[in-house]
Amino acid sequence: xxxxxxxxxxxxxxxxxxxxxxxxxxxxxxxxxxxxxxxxxxxxxxxxxxxxxxxxxxxxxxxxxxxxxxxxxxxxxxxxxxxxxxxxxxxxxxxxxxxxxxxxxxxxxxxxxxxxxxxxxxxxxxxxxxxxxxxxxxxxxxxxxxxxxxxxxxxxxxxxxxxxxxxxxxxxxxxxxxxxxxxxxxxxxxxxxxxxxxxxxxxxxxxxxxxxxxxxxxxxxxxxxxxxxxxxxxxxxxxxxxxxxxxxxxxxxxxxxxxxxxxxxxxxxxxx
Length: 272
What we know:
Elements: H1 6-16, H2 20-29, H3 34-45, H4 48-54, E1 59-66, E2 70-78, H5 81-84, H6 87-100, E3 106-107, H7 112-125, E4 130-138, E5 144-150, E6 156-164, H8 168-180, H9 195-211, H10 216-234, E7 240-241, E8 244-248, H11 249-253, E9 257-266
Antiparallel strand pairs: 1-2, 2-4, 3-4, 5-6, 6-9, 7-8
Helix pairs in contact: 1-2, 2-3, 6-7, 9-10
């Protein structure tokens, strides 16, 4: 009998959406061949596997876990809003976030323990439930601070990382601002806005100016003023605070602290 590789078990599970024990048994029976194991499971379930995996999982929940040294954010998806609001689903999503604290920092794949945490839900609900994405941030607890907020419907969550002197309540309010702000902030400052977003906006504005009859050289100069306004709208620190628009977020942060970064996740926008 072939020795099973844990990564193969996880790969088959991610591919089929079936419980780990079923995937392990199929791999054992096929001497570790993933393709043959998938065919075996398909035959055993007589088509149910395809039906299950084809159903869209557009509902779900964002869960966040924090310690002094690390913070995690996890998106768990389900097919129906009814399941996503179930107490067991909410608890399983939170458990996944808590377990992710033990993983390495950065974007991470669900560990075996995280995957096992939602296996019971798949069986009890019959839905295609999955961990869509997970991320871990780390910091020096002596100088850093985390803030977090999960909206009341559980579908939007924000994790903020800061340095310096800033209260938990202020960080929570900044998280709530990021959740509600429109346009959605795309970076802490103008320098943090992703290059492809900047380039897309600049190209759009230049084309608009040229369509009005301006030569390209003139159009390129004209858009720079507009781009400054654009950065003020989408750079977090420059945005008016939603709870008090007379102040900007940088005023709320204050001179003794700085925002290192943030993650704003919404159910359905991540990739499986």
